[in-house]
Amino acid sequence: MADLPREIRGLMIPVANGRLLLPNATVAEVVAYSAPERSENAPDWMLGAFAWRGWRVPLVSFPQLSGTGREQGFNQTKIAVLKALGGDPKLPFIAVLTQGFPRLVTVTPESLVPTDDDGHRAVGVLAEVLVREDPATIPDLALIETMLLESAALV
User: Fold this and answer.
1) Residue 75 pLDDT greater than 90, yes or no
2) Would you give the DSSP letter of residue 132?
3) Which of the residues 70, 84, 103, 126 has an alpha carbon 20 to 30 A from that of 24?
């Protein structure tokens, strides 16, 4: 336990109806929105795929995946490209639609308070937390990657 860091740099990523909290190291880049190419086999939460640095990256709407909302237009929209954690060569990156620029935060054990004590979580949610009184959702990236790989829509 002594080797674990006391603080982690994180990003609060605004999405429709909330914020996602991710480690800063997970986010490869935040880019301007460009309309993804939609696959006819895609679930509604997979908005399609777009070209990024030579890769075709699937774009996910987290609110639609988790059932917490729908996207409300694309005026301030950005795309956060995330490093995939599963090691599958077909899926080195995934992307999440954001509603603006992420905000850098420092997360310590004292600043992170779980708020989902009942154990009931939406699909794709690892935990609901408060970060210094700001509510956030920690997404279950491993599950989202699995769902994408199981989808016939990866292009």
Assistant:
1) no
2) T
3) 70
